[in-house]
Design goal:
With about 400 residues, this protein is an alpha/beta fold. The chain folds into two domains: about 200 residues, D-Maltodextrin-Binding Protein, domain 2 (3-Layer(aba) Sandwich), CATH 3.40.190; about 190 residues, D-Maltodextrin-Binding Protein, domain 2, CATH 3.40.190.10. It is about 40% helix and about 10% strand. It has 16 helices and twelve strands. The strands form four sheets. It has a four-stranded mixed sheet. A four-stranded mixed sheet has the order 8-9-7-10. It has a two-stranded antiparallel ribbon with strand order 4-5. Strand 4 and strand 5 form a beta hairpin. Helix 7 crosses helix 8. The longest helix is centred in the first third of the chain and has 17 residues.
């Protein structure tokens, strides 16, 4: 999988009305006789058969132990189908809730804020807890995570006379190796022309799109300008090209084709082995600007507000998020566990992905408050021309539009 672009707002999928028709009361979170658990539905956005089968097996194991049944549905379009379920008063009992939709659902009170009361609430990475918190409440437990790293084609690296000592630790190092790796048929660096990639440069420069208290947009700060100026410099020098200029749908494809020597992507890059079995690469943490930073992306296990099967769903989530089960998911379809203890074990077991795990210590989630997606989509369209555009002008427009979107949530 990859994270190209932003998922449309839930409202676009028809998320309207309220949850009145979907349930009448919560059954609480404790003391339920497991023999009385009712059948449940679980909706996921699957990356493929391996993920679907792994979730089905985990859900079936829990259901068997609790004398009930769980029907797992792999949605063809999770955003749309989940929205339709809520608007029709019949949402699934448990579902994947993505980082970019969470704020919208939580702000409309469509989710059960169960996570903060769970025994393992403190086991998750702080960045993941923050991504799924709203109004001071930790709503839903994260199921796994992905961070962005610098993926390096080791054959191209060696051919350029570079060694492990040259792996860039800062922007100056990135510029230097990108130049050495850029040849007639290969560009040194590639990533998508979007906030979900360029935003890390803004953060590395010490910037952010929101103030720490989340009450004010800070898009046009000097730090954010500096971050985009660095991207503009790389693009202007020709050592950074976007996937479309490399006849590729995303930067991972450009890496696989040998048209890009380095890309900024996440652990889903492992999927390239299917189409490009001869590809050899290594993963490094992203180079730092003024500071280290990367983005973290995740889904959480969402439960509808006022759900009659809240107790059952919480019990199932407890089973799905324990370290043993999360590591089984890692083995089945490559995700990184959301608990700190399981993630450390994952890093030991899969040392090639250790950089993704380590960087989650300082990772942040992209801005995703209700109403932000439309503004970010426009921002992305402006970023496509960053090589010749004025970062101050782009960010001034983002400041105005994003502040208006934030004001609309108050």
């Amino acid at each position: 999988m990859n994270t190209k672009g932003w998922v449309a707002l839930v409202a676009a999928a028809g998320l309207v009305a309220s949850l009145t028709g979907c349930s009448s009361s919560s059954s609480g979170s404790g003391g339920t006789d497991t023999s009385k658990y009712t059948p449940m539905t679980l909706m996921i956005g699957s990356s493929g058969d391996a993920e679907t089968k792994a979730v089905q097996a985990a859900a079936s194991s829990w259901a068997k132990a609790n004398k009930t049944k769980v029907t797992v549905t792999a949605a063809s379009d999770l955003t749309q189908q989940l929205g339709q379920g809520f608007s029709g008063g019949n949402p699934p009992d448990l579902f994947y809730m993505s980082w970019d939709q969470f704020q919208t659902y939580a702000s409309k009170k469509y989710l059960d804020p169960y996570a903060g009361q769970q025994a393992n609430a403190s086991a998750f990475y702080p960045a993941l807890k923050s991504a799924f918190s709203y109004g001071g409440k930790f709503y839903c437990e994260p199921k796994d995570f992905s961070t962005l790293g610098l993926i390096i084609n080791t054959d191209k690296w060696a051919a350029a006379g570079l060694t492990d000592a040259d792996i860039p630790k800062d922007w100056a190092g990135l510029e230097a190796v990108a130049k050495k790796l850029t040849t007639g048929d290969t560009v040194g660096l590639s990533f998508g022309p979007e906030y979900a990639r360029m935003g890390v440069f803004m953060n590395q420069a010490g910037g952010s799109l929101l103030s720490k208290d989340g009450k004010k947009v800070t898009a046009d700060s000097a730090a954010n300008v500096a971050g985009l100026e660095e991207v503009k410099k790389l693009a202007g020098e020709g050592v950074l090209k976007f996937p479309s200029a490399l006849d590729s749908g995303w930067s991972g494809e450009a890496l696989g084709k040998g048209k890009a020597a380095m890309v900024i992507e996440g652990p889903w890059i492992s999927g390239l082995k299917t189409d490009y079995p001869n590809l050899k690469y290594t993963v490094a943490e992203l180079p730092a600007g003024k500071e280290k930073s990367t983005f973290t992306f995740s889904n959480c296990w969402g439960i509808p507000a006022q759900s009659k099967t809240s107790a059952e769903a919480q019990s199932l989530v407890k089973s799905l998020t324990n370290d043993t089960q999360q590591l089984k998911f890692s083995a089945a379809f490559g995700v990184i566990p959301s608990t700190e203890t399981a993630a450390k074990e994952y890093a030991t077991k899969y040392p090639g992905n250790a950089a993704f795990v380590k960087s989650n210590d300082y990772a942040v989630s992209p801005v995703a408050f209700a109403g932000a997606a439309t503004v970010i989509t426009d921002f992305n369209s402006q970023l496509e021309g960053i090589a010749t555009a004025d970062p101050k002008t782009i960010l001034a427009s983002l400041q105005k539009n994003l502040q208006a979107a934030l004001d609309a949530t108050k």
